[in-house]
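Trying the structure run again after the queue cleared.
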Amino acid sequence: MTEPASRLLPAWRAERPWLADALVCDGLLPWANHFLPPGANLAAQLRRFREAGGVDHVSLTAAAGNEGPVEAMARLGFLRRELGQHAAWIRVAEDEAAIRKAKSDGLMSVSFHFQTATPFTSSLDLVEAFKGAGIVRAILAYNEGNAFADGCHEARNGGLTHYGHQLIARMDGVGMVVDLSHCGAWTSFDVMEAPLRRPPIFSHSNARALFDHERNITDEQIKACAARGGYVGVNGVGMFLGASGPHIPEAMATHVAHIASLAGPERVGIGLDFMFLEGSDYGFFHAARGRWPRGYPEPPWDFFQPEQFGDLVRALEAKGFARKELVGVLGENYLRLAAKTGSRVMLNRRALFAGIAVSVARPGWTAEPLEILTADVRPLSIADGPRRGIVLDIVQDALRAIGQEARFTFLPFAEALQRTQAQPGALMAPLARSPQRESAFAWIAKVVDVPQAMGTVAGKPTVDLDAARHLARVGVVKAGVQESFLRDKGFANLIPFSSAREIAQALAEGQVDAWYSTATEIVLQFEVIGHPGGVRVGPTIQTVPVWLAGNRDTARIPVDRIRSALTELERSGSIDRTFRAYVPA
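Done. Tokens:
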């Protein structure tokens, strides 16, 4: 067993006798395998927090990103094993009373949380299982969308799914705090409007009004959190503060002061999000650059260091924080609001591992994904780039709400039609209904209504339906609903193409005079071919309901559950928000 860490107070606390006995809490310390450089030592870093930073309690991340229950349980086991080797000075403490007891016994304490809800995806019974294992709170979505909610970097900003509403009720029921850092704005508002007994928190989020980064939160979110009785922990990540190195403590104090002005000084604290990256090659960043949105600069990155606590306290004093307010910011607010997890759920080891076994064996999101055949029909479906498109986003939300993932296969439109008709259990989206298709597919559910129009090149007049009849050549996607519609109207001047991109190129080069399609697709495809602003769109000719359809053999498709999930997305406004994210009013 190692020697106890020093109990001597760092200078900044020794110089302030009124702070000597105060509890200092860091609400978030990630220690995830895929971020850590070789040789990273958890105990060594906790010693820095205790001895140089004067920190009494730290909350450790046991799962993040899209990790499942097995990875989460393995990480939790690793953390407990590592900490157990230093029991002379570290104790696991899951609630306020236990944290205070560890402090009075002269020990540092730690607790555990998830920076994602994905360990719960395959079975909500895992909420009780992981609460019994020591997880006191969980973030719903880590930057991206998942089965429960959208993260802060999802452009659609779709909020909670139906499954997400079920999750937060389950979490609240067992005393697990809902954490909204990394979540999208609508996700946070949906949660703050929910009838939870325990207020949700932002464990490590900064003010977007001071530095415009998607990971930061707006004044409206801060005010809503305060009105709900919640708490905001300010982080020390340079790229979220707009600061670096020695300037980070001052920037943190500025964010603390701003949040305190909106929420009250009793509802703000510290969640440093310190990442130990000394000697790292930042391989996690370089290997997945396409997944990192704007605002993440080239490494190396700067973080608040434990040795900078004295600088932070001095900066807060300079901002006018009184002694009682400082005690609150440094730890008491966290203990009062973020560490009150309610009654402890007692589960024996057999029940805990039974929950894990259920999650691994149970069919659901972690099972074989449902294949969705699709074509590049922008903005409904997008074959490349960081966003999937309106229809594919909505369909994926619906599937995730029932614990199922989607795998999108992009094909030429006519080929996608043929494969869906021939392959039992196949699904296709987007697809519009027509008399010719009606009996060839199983129509699962309508996804969204989309306006259709004629596009002409810039400099030429726009055309409506009657004017288009007199043109020499009108482009349409082969076998698409637009072709069927115009042929039923007696058009004899149609030129079918295999893809929307081919039509856009043909229109730009004068090979066709107009293109009939989804209004926004016409504009977006001209951007794809390098002619932004090179097209004009005429008046809406019709509004077409776009569907998720399938092979007539639906035995392997959970039709009723998909329909119910889409109905809930429509009811909650999620579909409208997704549409507006791509097509602003």
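Confidence is low (pLDDT under 50) at residues 342-367. Worth checking whether this holds up in the mutant runs.
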